[in-house]
Amino acid sequence: TQSTVIAPSILSADFARLGEEVDNVLKAGADWVHFDVMDNHYVPNLTIGPMVCEALRKHGVTAPIDVHLMVEPVDRIVPDFAKAGATTISFHPEASAHVHRTIQLIKSLGCKAGLVLNPGTPLEVLDWVLDDLDMVLLMSVNPGFGGQSFIPSALEKLRRVRERIDRSGRAIRLEIDGGVKADNIGEIAAAGADTFVAGSAIFNAPDYADTIGRMKAAVAA
Ligand code: DX5
Ligand code: ZN
């Protein structure tokens, strides 16, 4: 089993003070920085790109940067994120014409590769690529916005992906993204997640360390 990772989504951070916000969540106990990239095409919102990732590295961020691409097409932007200092690059199979090729591209550039499943995406997309992945990211909301509610069917989906990962015998992370809070993270962990994205639950709270601490305690319980 993998160590627990809390990955605050900077989508809910104060973008006018982004460097400081990232420093603060990392000081407060965050393990990774979750970096949501939206293109107003694959999803109905527009956020940040490789230049902002590079700026965080130049600012001195050494923690893993977990890039979640909600863009179409995928392949064109992957090398830019690898160059900008991304650690993991995850993408949606619906947005890539050649899922296997995109995974190999990400890994050939020295990054870890993740595949993202929307709430309505069947698990079969994992069938012929699971062994090539470093991470499976299950969406527990439809992508595009922070602050949405956790979709309950994601718990059963987590259990099924956990079984597949265990059967593979590989060290593949299982990340959950959307509506994760201190009061539901315990059951989400019990369903099999080891890597937890949380945006609004952390950045909208007054005390980042307290919130992250309560999340880690609930996962460990
Ligand atoms: C949604 C993004 C999420 C989002 C999570 O498309 O992928 O990472 O920021 O935000 P919360 O934790 O507020 O649901
Ligand atoms: Zn995300």
TrEMBL record:
Cofactor(s) essential for the protein: Mn(2+); Co(2+); a divalent metal cation; Fe(2+)
Cofactor comment text: Binds 1 divalent metal cation per subunit.
Enzyme class: isomerase
EC number: 5.1.3.1
Biological pathway: Carbohydrate degradation
Pfam short name (any one): Ribul_P_3_epim
Domain of life: Bacteria
Keyword Protease part of the UniProt annotation: no
Amino-acid positions noted as binding a divalent metal cation in the UniProt annotation, renumbered to this chain: H34, D36, H68, D177
List of catalytic residues: D36 (proton acceptor), D177 (proton donor)
Chain residues that bind substrate: S9, H68, G144, F145, G146, G147, D177, G178, G179, G199, S200
Reactions that this protein is recorded to catalyse: D-ribulose 5-phosphate = D-xylulose 5-phosphate
Tagged with keyword Metal-binding: yes
HAMAP family in UniProt: RPE
NCBIfam families: PRK05581.1-4, rpe
Alphabetized PANTHER family for the sequence: RIBULOSE-5-PHOSPHATE-3-EPIMERASE
Family from the record: Belongs to the ribulose-phosphate 3-epimerase family.
Protein name: Ribulose-phosphate 3-epimerase
Organism: Lysobacter yananisis
Underlying gene: rpe
